[in-house]
Amino acid sequence: MWESYKKGYKAWLQLERSLSDHSIEAYLRDVGKLTDFLLETRRMESPAGIRIDDLREFLRWLNTRSLSARSQARTVSAIRSFYKYCAQEELVLDDPALLLETPRVKTKLPEVLSFAEIEELIAQIDLSRPEGERNRAILETLYSCGLRVSELVNLRISCVYSELGYIRVIGKGDKERLVPIGRSAIRYIGLYRDHVRSKQTVKSGEEDILFLNRLGGRLSRVMIFLLLKGLVAKAGIRKKISPHSLRHSFATHLVEGGADLRAVQEMLGHESITTTEIYTHLDREYLRETLHQFHPAFR
């Protein structure tokens, strides 16, 4: 019964929300948990037959599955999204998910690198090797622009406007945004293109991809992770660092420097300002640590 609703919901996510295939699969998987619950409890109602009490019992059922609060919150988000679709398509008269409470999720503050630590990471790059110039350009670009790893590995030469100081980024849901890029990153991209990339044999179809592996194809996300992991170890930095840490550091340093939150949201490509607001919490945490360290009443 629910399969036809799921198909319609999938099309809505693709056309109305412009989500990636990965995100759509996650939403459908979470809606699938609701249908699993309905099947197990033998109450295979249509979406219009579900009430708020059914959804609350569904949340209790999720608890018995030992799902984390974060996973449960994501599932609630998917159910709300599904019923938003149902309401727009007039498949239900009332939306039972409107009053569904989201489990509280403790926000885990990400590790942030200081500017000195980022410089130390870059200093570990072996520039005597051909990939050294590329790796330096990669780190400079990640930190200078606050890119997601997927955005970096898919960055195109035609999207780098060096003279204007901008790059065009294809983000989540194929949404484009213009992001300023620093002079240092532009310089190292130019050195990489002139001295390394220009000497490579490029795979067919990858001619416009900026950062290439030794075989002339685009880099993988795993390769970027391994690159950073090696540099962190060499630098002796004792933090749990991932490529996303450079994006977090980019945003945190902007907010700590007094940047407007809306501008940071635009540069990061966040759909909601709420997502960007985590960096104000990071800033508050920094202030709290400063008080504990230097104020006599907090020692």
Your description of this structure?
With 299 residues, the chain is mainly alpha-helical. Helices cover 56% and strands 4% of the residues. Strands 1-2-3 form a three-stranded antiparallel β-sheet. A hairpin with a 5-residue loop joins strand 2 and strand 3.
Describe this protein with a few key phrases.
299 residues, 3 strands, mainly alpha
Give the helix/strand class: mainly alpha
SS element count, helices: 13
Helix content: 55-70%
Low-confidence stretches: none
Summarize the biggest pleated sheet.
3 strands, antiparallel
Sum up the overall morphology in one term: elongated
- Record field, number of beta strands: 3
As a percent range, the share of strand residues is: under 5%
Q: What are the secondary-structure elements, in order, as H or E?
A: HHHHHHHEEEHHHHHH
Distance between the termini: 63 Å
Overall mean pLDDT stands at 85
From the alpha carbons, calculate the radius of gyration and give it in angstroms: 23 Å
Strand order of the largest sheet: 1-2-3
